[in-house]
Write a structure and sequence with these properties.
The chain has about 60 residues and is mainly alpha-helical. It has 3 helices and no strands.
Length: about 60
């Protein structure tokens, strides 16, 4: 997997992590899975590349 030139900095990643954690809390335990699927699909669409998205999925599955 290659990292795009527009990769986030560590502070940017921390901001994204905080936003994600807050949104998961807002969704609540009954809607967390649905929220994460919707978010993944929105980001896949913004990414515009199914192969890269698939590589990101595999990277996220490692070491769970």
């Amino acid at each position: 997997m290659t990292i795009a030139n527009n990769a986030l900095t560590i502070p940017g990643l921390e901001t994204v992590y905080d936003a994600l954690a807050t949104a998961i809390d807002q969704a609540g335990p009954d809607k967390t899975e649905l929220f994460l699927v919707k978010l993944a699909l929105l980001n896949a669409n913004a990414l515009g590349n199914a192969d890269t998205f698939g590589a990101h999925v595999q990277a996220a599955l490692r070491d769970l």
